[in-house]
Design brief:
Length: 532
């Protein structure tokens, strides 16, 4: 059959060169770039099968390793509504990635049967990539996979991960926007400009924003956006590639959050807001250096509370807060002080779920308006159809003051990339709230005080020997470990600690918080010792 030819071609062009088992994890497949070509080709095949199972709706393939260093790369699939690949397909992806070249044909046939794909249907696949030098070759391998099964690939070139999610969503639902990079700017940046016309710059808010682009794709795209801004925001971009800056090396959101240090490559001015993106533009944290040269981090929890409190405020102004339930979703990594603030001061319900955006996104959908963020800065807001309808009605029929609030909220919704956490969209959301309130970093920071915390990684023989429960806050295996952690935590004031196996690296992660940095560091070290 013609498929015979296809598999012969695959062996020839994208042979499997490694025997190392690879698994579709929290962020798809991620490893050294030179081990990925056959994996990406096979994901091209799988995307076509998935598109056919979804009646020809478009599927996305993103080539990126996010905040990892340059030698790594990765691939993940995007489902038709712009969300992460359905979990039950992760095992299928893993199976297809690991079979030998000789078994690829029979395994693909098996998968087609298993998922009951009608291979006579059309299939459409959008492919995007980050700025890594290994990405173009991998994107081409993905396209070859798509073509092999007679699907239609569309290559977007270098885009942020959230841009690709957005485009997939728009292609399958044209009410959401236009499925191009320009369509993305039109909707997200367009809404920001509209909202800025309605606000006056006041108080301590300053339109200058410094940006750490992690030498990745996010900074590059902000450089395009910068030219279309008209005084609404004065972006000073650093680490956008060039000047020998290396991707994610001592810069970017992950570096800033985990090391709690300012990135290299930026000139610092006391109290100047700096937004730090990660390598593929889906994470955002803020920070500033104060007059004592201390680093002050405004992380994902801080962004979540800022957005949730502003949305709640607008809902009250619309008099829609009794109809619409707003909720916040966090993980165990959320700073305990943020959870306390959300519950006691904002009085917004909060749920805690397992690490991984798919879990947060899913939980957020159970609210009329769900705000979800990982402490590392990955998150967004999702609005139910009911919420959008209620707000639209007020925007049309409400009293003048209510109408104004509802229209602001509509712009706010348009500015949000609801498909997935998006550093660029989140940056515009944050800037909007700060501007609306006339707040600078000091006021933003004053809402609550973070508990000092520390994250560590421990390399162990078998990280999967550790099992957890209660949204990863408690260990169930190995036996005795949880009891030991409880003992270690007990003497610390405001102490909390947990361990879990990473889903993206071969390590166990340790998290600890306590009333002082010294205590948090000490507790983390003690727990790490107990794991080891
Ligand atoms: P792992 O390696 O499973 O901890 C990390 C992040 C997640 C998520 C994924 C995907 C932390 C502690 N973990 O997962 O939040 O972003 O990467 O990128 O930040
Ligand atoms: Zn990322």
């Amino acid at each position: 059959s013609s498929l015979r030819v296809v598999y012969a071609f695959a062996r020839e062009m994208h042979p499997k060169t490694s025997e190392v088992f690879i698994e579709y994890g929290t962020a798809g497949f991620r490893t050294k770039a030179n081990l990925l070509e056959h994996v990406v080709y096979r994901m091209g095949l799988l995307a076509v099968i998935r598109s056919r199972v979804k009646n020809g709706r478009t599927i996305g393939i993103m080539i990126t390793a996010s905040h990892n260093l340059e030698p790594d790369n990765g691939v993940k699939l995007v489902d038709p509504d712009g969300e992460m690949l359905e979990q039950s397909w992760e095992e299928i992806a893993t199976r297809l990635a690991n079979v030998s070249d000789n078994d690829l044909e029979s395994t693909t046939e098996q998968v087609i049967k298993q998922v009951n794909a009608d291979m006579s249907l059309k299939a459409s696949v959008f492919i995007g990539m980050d700025t890594r030098y290994t990405s173009p070759r991998l994107a081409a391998a993905a396209a070859n996979g798509v073509i092999a099964l007679k699907g239609t690939p569309k290559e977007f070139g270098i885009v942020t991960t959230p841009m690709l999610h957005f485009c997939v969503k728009c292609r399958n639902d044209n009410t959401y926007g236009t499925p191009t990079e320009e369509g993305y700017y039109e909707k997200i940046v367009g809404a920001f400009k509209k909202i800025r016309q309605k606000l006056t710059v006041c108080g301590d808010y300053n339109t200058t924003l410094y940006v750490d682009g992690a030498n990745g794709v996010g900074g590059k795209k902000l450089n395009i956006i910068k030219k279309t801004l008209d005084g609404e925001l004065d972006l000073q971009l650093f680490n956008i590639g060039g000047n020998g800056g290396k991707l994610n090396l001592n810069c970017g959101a992950d570096f800033v959050k985990v090391s709690q240090k300012a990135p290299v490559g930026i000139e610092h001015v006391p109290f100047q807001r700096v937004a730090s993106l990660d390598g593929d533009g889906d994470r955002l944290v803020y920070y500033y250096i104060d007059d004592k040269n201390n680093m002050n981090l405004l992380d994902g929890d801080r962004i979540a509370t800022l957005l949730a409190s502003y949305i709640a405020e607008l809902l009250r102004a619309c008099e829609a807060s009794s109809d619409l339930q707003i909720g916040l979703v966090q993980t165990a990594y959320a700073n305990g002080a943020s959870t306390k603030y959300i519950t006691e001061d904002l009085k917004v319900p909060v749920s805690c779920v397992k690490t991984g955006v798919k879990h947060l996104h899913h939980a957020a959908l159970s609210y009329d308006i769900g705000v979800y963020f990982e402490a590392n800065g990955h998150g967004t807001v999702v609005y139910s159809t009911k919420a959008k309808e209620v707000i639209a009605k007020v925007a049309q029929e409400g009293e003048p003051e209510q109408r104004k609030a509802a229209q602001l909220l509509q712009n706010f919704i348009d500015m949000t990339n609801e498909t997935v956490g998006d550093a660029i969209s989140d940056l515009f959301l944050v800037e909007t709230v700060l501007c609306a309130r006339g707040h600078g970093v000091k006021q933003w920071m004053s809402s609550y005080a973070d508990l000092p915390c520390r994250q560590l990684k421990v390399t162990v023989q078998d990280r999967n020997a550790i099992s957890t429960t209660d949204a990863e806050r408690q260990c169930t295996a190995p036996e005795g470990l949880q009891t030991r952690i409880d003992e270690l935590v007990r003497p610390y004031s405001c102490g909390r600690a947990f361990v879990r196996p990473s889903g993206t690296e071969d390590v166990v992660r340790v998290y600890a918080e306590a009333d002082t940095q010294l205590s948090a560091d000490k507790l983390a070290a003690e727990v790490a010792q107990a794991v080891y």
